[in-house]
Amino acid sequence: xxxxxxxxxxxxxxxxxxxxxxxxxxxxxxxxxxxxxxxxxxxxxxxxxxxxxxxxxxxxxxxxxxxxxxxxxxxxxxxxxxxxxxxxxxxxxxxxxxxxxxxxxxxxxxxxxxxxxxxxxxxxxxxxxxxxxxxxxxxxxxxxxxxxxxxxxxxxxxxxxxxxxxxxxxxxxxxxxxxxxxxxxxxxxxxxxxxxxxxxxxxxxxxxxxxxxxxxxxxxxxxxxxxxxxxxxxxxxxxxxxxxxxxxxxxxxxxxxxxxxxxxxxxxxxxxxxxxxxxxxxxxxxxxxxxxxxxxxxxxxxxxxxxxxxxxxxxxxxxxxxxxxxxxxxxxxxxxxxxxxxxxxxxxxxxxxxxxxxxxxxxxxxxxxxxxxxxxxxxxxxxxxxxx
Length: 388
Known about the structure:
Blueprint: E1 11-16, H1 22-35, E2 40-44, H2 49-58, E3 66-70, H3 74-84, E4 88-92, H4 109-126, E5 129-134, H5 147-151, E6 154-159, E7 166-174, E8 182-188, E9 191-194, E10 213-220, E11 223-235, E12 243-246, H6 250-263, E13 271-277, H7 289-301, E14 309-311, E15 314-315, E16 321-322, H8 327-336, E17 341-344, E18 359-362, H9 366-378
Parallel strand pairs: 1-5, 1-6, 2-3, 2-4, 4-5, 12-13, 14-17, 17-18
Antiparallel strand pairs: 6-7, 7-8, 8-9, 10-11, 11-13, 15-16
Helix pairs in contact: 6-7, 7-9
Protein name: DNA repair protein RadA
Domain RecA family profile: 1-136
GO molecular function, one term: zinc ion binding
């Protein structure tokens, strides 16, 4: 995700919500660097040395050349760096350090600016790779002055839902490499484990198919991931029907609902709509529109969708299905996971990069997509059994 590794003299800012696993991830990174024969200094301003050691033992991140300091004074930390002269320094976190030369408590704008500038100057002068942990505000932005993001070389966001095991690491800014790569990790009892193939986390493990479920292929950076969308449509008992979503944008669902009702004649007035993703994944890109619309149509018609079908496409206000980027990569991932049919926007079938073993059905608009589902509903029920 960093484009090949940490650069000597480079400073990486890692931001994320409290308790999401930043310290666990960076302690593992520090231990791996130490096992490679390098001296590493891990500075914790939030926990005692005993607490950090206990976590290191639990996640098996102990190493002979991994040095630990529990300190909040900037001058003391700089002296420890001068004494150890490590190849990598982890500061957890930059908001907990304070300089005696600046007035104010640790974490205010002046302190964060002074602390960051001093640490970055040491990293550049001594050729040390440095990782700074940054807190985030309620709005999700990095706490402290905006100049902090400009001073560092790399800004990384650590994301994930508290109730989900999945953690994503995104590069927001990177002077040394790409910003379109994403690292996927599984947060478990033994620490954080890299996931080379995380698609299975977002697919349900039912034996058969039920109405209201559809699989889509989303792109996290350059990595295609298959995710399942589930919809439930029921008659409402209140004057204003409920619209509850989890893992998807509520305003996007409201738009798709209106398009389904206006362009495809779906009877959604007076009905509660619940829509969620499997595994806690968040679907941000418009390529998941068709799968969400298909799941809602399946729930209305009470027709199960083929469990080996994947739907990809953006839904426009006129009901048209718009093309999306990286369709070939998405279909290649679907074919690898043994999906046999794909609903896609027009113009995809002629591509030479399409994988073999998957049947591509182009749907120009939402009416055609719902019509495909209605034709399945008219078939004998024996043909609706899932492929086993």
